[in-house]
Amino acid sequence: MNKKILLIGGGGHCKSVLDSLLLLNEYNEIAIVDLYENIGKSIMGIPIIGSDTDLAHLFKDGYEFAFITMGSIGNPKLRIKLYDEISSIGFNIPNIIDISANVSNFTELGKGIFIGKKSIVNAGAIVGNGAIINTGSIIEHDCKIGEFVHIAPGAILGGAVEIGKNSHVGSGVIIKQQIKIGDNSIIGMGSIVTKIIGNNKKAYGNPCREVNDYE
Description:
- By secondary structure, the protein is of the alpha/beta class.
- Helix content is about 15%, strand content about 30%.
- The protein is globular, with a radius of gyration of 17 Å.
- The mean pLDDT is about 95.
């Protein structure tokens, strides 16, 4: 079977996803869609063959699969826009899980999720569409990760933690079990979270405190 996949976005996050994807050896052909001025260049030996205006045409050319490789820190609006666009065109949106990650068979995963190197997602966890579970992060049992959440490298979520949609949990954050983080919020790197954080908040520190609203 000839499986062809497009990666959409050619920045730093693309390199992380591509590194994992190449090791999986699941696709016969991989190509990247990025800014128009980058067409003809390559990333890690993979060609940039078009921009987002070419997506429908590339789908007709046999690229059945597509994956968003544009990262986000607290503002996933463009990721969401691109995800909705490839969904409406008809692309299949897979999950890309690094071979070194440990993901329980008893998890519930949406679509378009990236789970990076040496990450752990334990039994009973639910991960929503478009989420990023980055390098070395730990998602304990029964956690709920909303759509388009980014769990940055080295973050640790205790059991039954809930992260609302579109939120960002910074590198090295530790969240106490059963704590809830609201939608559209940012938790600063290295924070220790022991209390609920609301929607649309910036919060950081040890202990983590809400600092101001995030828009």
